[in-house]
Amino acid sequence: MHSRFNHVDQSADIEPRLLRRAAIASTIALMATLAVTAPPSAAATNGNHTHLTDGQVAALKASMDRTAWDIGPTPPLTAQQKQLVKEKMAGVQAFQAAHPTSSAEMTADPEMAPDAGGVLASDSVAANQMAQTTTYYCGPAAVKEALGQRGIGGIQSNLADAMNTTLDGTAWSGVNADVPSPTGHPVPDVLNDRLSSHGQNFTYVPKSVAYSATSSDISNYKGNLLADIYYYSFPLVGDAYEVPGGPHLVGHPNITIFHWFDIRGYTSSGDDTKYEDSVHGSSISWADGVPAYSTLTSAKIARIVGGRGYVW
After folding, report:
1. Which residue in 1, 58, 228, 250 has its CB near the most CB atoms, within 10 A?
2. For 239-292, how does the pLDDT look when each residue is reduced to its tens digit (9 = 90+)?
3. Is it the case that residue 104 has pLDDT exceeding 60?
4. pLDDT (0 to 100) of residue 16
């Protein structure tokens, strides 16, 4: 977890991803332009802070990204990654053909959408939430949780080294992980490296989401969620981009936070997402207000990761 709206203050234990002065000025100016009232107190931790429109949230995120360090140039999917995605969905199609009587429709990216088929209304992988060991280790913690759900061990500091995590946190893109043939997306690269070394034939790929998640973004996310959890029994990993006045994960205060989190399941045929949060039990000052496990609508999760995305 990391906040870049506040200056680093170890006594406050706020996650250190900072806005530069120019970005702060830009943000303040933008919020004034939008005629936004002052956001609720950052001390509030119920996660229900939304008072900006989706368009205002998108504009705010875009403005802040002028000085963001954690997003590359975002490399496009390679030809190999595109082929792997098609193979993942082909496996889902084959499963659906063999199980035509189950209950809920699975959708996916339009260019590789399977035929209508069924999945369980609720499904999940193991619950194994663990606290991040530093204020900036949300990425390593989420990757450790995801690997653990596949029976693979890991040490947060070793995973941080592999992903080139810094005091600012773990990048979405633009940083090469310490793995063979890195793609510029450190989280999926390290996940794939560890899975491969343990003989598990599964490949994670990044999926970017627009600043203001579109209906297609939400539909794609729900389809990819169902594919990974129900068909493959693999978790997803989200990269939250939370801004004042926008949607937040449960218990997160109304400040700017970037936070990797493990997505472990769904309910309501994919309409709701189950996730675990490494802030819980950590040394962060507001960690007590963050549950280890929570459920939010999948539409809200897609909005929260807008401007970054998720790994599936």
Report:
1. 1
2. 999 999 999 999 999 999 999 999 999 999 999 999 999 999 999 999 999 999
3. no
4. 36
